[in-house]
Specification:
Elements: E1 2-10, H1 15-32, E2 38-43, E3 52-60, H2 63-73, E4 89-97
Antiparallel strand pairs: 1-3, 1-4, 2-3
C-alpha cells in the first residue's frame, strides 16, 4: 500500500473556508477518481510555520494505482482551487510505502 501525503500551509484567515471547500468539493473529486481507497485529514499541532498546517493522507492499495493517479492528474492537485485561496497557501507532497502495519 502507498500513502500519498499532501501538506498544505495556509494563511490563518482562509483556513475555515478552505477546510469547508476541501471537505465538500475537493475530497469528493479526488476520491471519485477511484485511485485511492481511503483518506485522512490531519491538522499539524506543532508546526514551526506561520499560519496553519494540514496534511491530507490518501491511501492507494497499489503502487500502480498511485502512479496512474499521478500520470492522470500530476502533482498539481491543488492548482485548481477557488480564487479566494490563491497565493494564500503553500503545498508539498511526499509518498511513502507501507513496510509494516498493525
Amino acid at each position: 500500500m502507498i500513502l500519498y501525503n499532501v501538506t498544505i500551509i495556509l494563511e490563518e484567515e482562509i483556513h475555515e473556508a478552505w477546510l469547508n471547500w476541501l471537505k465538500q468539493e475537493y475530497l469528493v473529486q479526488v476520491m471519485g477518481t477511484g485511485y485511492f481507497i481511503s483518506y485522512r485529514v490531519l491538522k499539524v499541532l506543532d508546526s514551526p510555520n506561520e499560519g496553519l498546517t494540514y496534511c491530507i493522507q490518501y491511501i492507494a492499495d497499489s503502487n500502480e494505482n498511485y502512479r496512474e493517479y499521478l500520470s492522470c492528474y500530476g502533482n498539481n492537485q491543488m492548482n485548481h482551487v477557488p480564487d479566494q485561496f490563491l497565493n494564500k497557501f503553500v503545498v508539498f507532497t511526499t509518498s511513502m510505502e507501507y513496510i509494516e502495519t498493525e
